[in-house]
Design goal:
Blueprint lengths: L9 H20 L3 H22 L6 H22 E4 L2 E6 L4 E2 L1 H17 L5 H19 L4 H17 L4 H13 L10 H11 L10 H13 L10 H6 L9 H34 L3 H25 L17 H23 L16 H37 L1 E6 L6 E2 L5 E5 L3 E6 L8 H10 L4 H9 L7 E7 L1 H10 L4 E5 L3 E2 L7 H4 L2 E3 L2 H6 L8 E3 L2 H5 L1 H5 L3 E7 L5 E8 L7 E3 L3 H18 L3 E8 L5 E7 L13 H8 L10 H4 L9 H10 L14 E4 L2 E4 L9 H7 L2 H11 L1 H10 L17 E2 L2 H6 L6 H8 L5 E2 L2 H13 L1 E2 L5 E4 L4 E2 L6 E2 L7 H13 L13 E8 L8 E9 L6 E8 L4 H16 L11
Parallel strand pairs: 5-15
Antiparallel strand pairs: 1-2, 2-3, 4-13, 5-6, 6-10, 7-8, 7-9, 11-12, 13-14, 15-23, 16-17, 16-28, 18-19, 20-21, 22-25, 23-24, 26-27, 27-28
Length: about 950
Amino acid sequence: MQEGKHESDPWIVGAAIVLVVLGLLNLTATGMTGHAVRHLLFAVVGLAIMWVVSRMRVSDLRAFGWAVFAVATLLLAAVPLAGVATKGAQRWLNFGVFTVQPSELAKLALILVPAGMLAGGFTLARFVATLAIAAVPVALVAVQPDLSTAVVLVATTGFMLVLARVPLLPLVPLFVMGIASLPLAVLFLRPYQLERVHVFLSSNADPAGAGWAELQANIAIGSGGLWGLARDPLYAVRAQFLPESEHDLAFASLVYGWGLVAGLAVVVATSVIVWRAALAARTARTREAALVAAGIGGLFGIHALVSIGQSLSLLPHTGMPIPLFSYGGTAAIVGFAAIGLVLAVRRDGVARPLWAPDPRRRRRPRGVSAGTMTMIAALVAMSVFAWQVQHDRGAEYRAMSDAQMMRCIRLPAERGLIVDRNGVPLVVNVAEYAVAVVARMFDDSDDDARNRLAALLAKSPDELSDLIDAGGVGETQVEVGRVAPDQARRVVDARIPGVLVVPSGRRQYPYGAVLASILGHVGVADADDMQRWPHLALGSRVGKAGLEKQYDALLRGSDGTQCMYVDPTGNPVATGERVDPVRGHDLRLHLDIGVQTLATDALVDAMRTSRGDLGAAVVMDARTGAVLALASVPGADNNVYGPPADLVALAAQSQTPGPSALVNNATQTAVPPGSTFKIVVASADMQYPVLSPDAVIETGAAYTYGGHTFRNWQPMGPNNMLQAIQWSDNVYFYKLGELLGPEKMSDVANQLGAGRRSGIDLPGEAEGFLGTPENVGSIGATWYPGSTLLMGIGQGTVSATPIQVARWTSGIATGAMVTPQLAAAYGPELIPLPTATPQRLAFADRLDPVRAGMRASAAAGTAGQLADLPVPAGAKTGTAEDPSAPGEGLNAWFSAVAPFDAPEIVVTALVRGGGFGSATSGPVVKKILERYFPRPPAPTSTR
């Protein structure tokens, strides 16, 4: 025996046992207890075989090698006849109690047989014979087809040729032919093998398809950390997402469960086996024994490099296991037998040194030291790479690990209410809740839970079971009933596992058509909503129109979630975190439902008597822009929108003849403003003086200009500005418009809000139109000389909405332009919403003549019906020609401000097709003002 050396090698035996133990840790952590027991039994049998083989004489290696080769060949030949098929390949023979993979035995045979044949030195005959013999198992494995193992067998044979010091001259052409034939292998690859190659070569493989295994391996390595996640209560669920965790991707699985420290243990144990096999080769007494030991060390190293490389996505997934560590009975037993051969070689070399030939005749295998160091260095480099992945992307992969096993059910938040200025509810939530059970979390076989839930829902247990069974395959939750609030509270208090209670989400609009065009409605979010609110969940209910849309962010609240952990098939396995929904804020408006209802009823009466087809009324605080009423007739019932929508009622509403009931006529219907625009033209004369307001000019019944006659609404005598406004003298404003010109009138009109949106907090507001020669020409129309005169009386190229008329009426009366606003505050603390500051007009101090005309109109003019109000008013009437209006084509306008000496409120009314403004819209405005300024009670007699 060589001094200082032992026949046995505890290092290599210990490394083999460490690999087995690490494999057991991996299997138990992933919940494969049965596999772990079998792996342990295989290890025990393997250790026994290792001990037997380690006692073999080196002189028996050649016979042992041929015996192994014969058995492997016979078994490989039987595979096509009686083998077990997986993924289209027959690789195993089933002997009932156990299965055998003959290709694992063939790997050992192709180390032993070439070692015996090439130990005597190179000859061409030996070289050719070795290739011919190796071709037999290679061909049998290839026809299974198991091309990855066939490539390993070819590589093993080539490796043995290199170790045996076959000259490079015959080797180089052989290797060149092998490399050149690699593209042809594509013709023989199975679809799943082609996918693996594609995933490795492509950076955009579908992570839910062909790229699944690579993605899961990256997640396992990246999120495992130093100590792994096996102690996580949910690790068994995490582990299910990694495919082939016991075999091909066992290294990734081990790092996932037990951390990079365990992965390093695999690297160290494998490196020890490679190192000790190389040392055995150096100690070997014969060249054949040296080749066997070196070949076995190389085989262990190649398996580890390829298997770890595929776990790190550095190599394509080939299905290569790590011997003794990865699960597999044949591989384990063959691995231990190979360790036994190394021990036999070492024992022979240490125990019988006197029989060793002269070292000069005992040439060592080629490159065994350099190859060993290269393999160990590569394994260490891969370990560093794994650490780098964890360091750089560990948090990202851990988040992906959490996310892929988590499914969250949205718990819709209740929308906030909308109330008027006095707290009267205008929009409420339907007092109804949906009760749902979560699939696989509610145990329908639990009689107690089923009976309790059935009793709470007032159903029989069988009815409840039928409802649950009726849920579609793959449905996360199944609705089993709808209940009232008190009943919902009882279900919640019962705390039955897997039962959810969520609000139905239906809205109720008690005032229907009176407020429909203001409040709007809600619906299921569509693509546009998802673009506007990217964080919205599918199926969310959002405001689709009106204030519901404008203030959706405030009203909607924040949805909650009930999360659950799922397995790779999507089936829930455990309850996760719950985040309760946060109810939306209540929204308080400036609007007064009493004034709104009065304005709507008054418009309906005016339209009925005048046969107008649509009407609108604006009631606004002249000082702040707060909107007290915004009536629009006809109106639609927004209760029919649900969701779910009442399709029959919706169809009936849409087919109603006449103007659309879905339009808010106060903000979206722009028509000629007629004589209400005259106070705008008069204001332009104050900004750009062309005619003194005191100047009295001839008017009469008509004005002829450019060969055309422009008529007055009645013959009139000479008038100044006050009288012209008081009696709405068309001829006066024809002449004033001619003197001013369109640009000056347009400039002042623009400052007073004509031709641009008012900024009211409602979506879809119309701009109206304010024509000038420039913009009329830009749309392909012609500005005629008479267009300027018509602009002077609010006809022709001018159109405005009632909200715009209300703004310029209040702006002229107060000297400042306000921004209309419906919403006042939100939340229980009534947090005020931002309000635009009134913008003072540049010519505010020069408007007294215009105001005097408005006051005269209300006191004893076209708006004289307001003279008996308890407060002074200023007003302007309008009767506008409109081809789109029914009947005689006259729109009835009336706009008033009161008290005129300190304006508080502006009221504007329009009835399209209503005829004269004072006759049709005047009563509407007066009714509203009489409510706002009630007469003081008559004094009581003291007699």
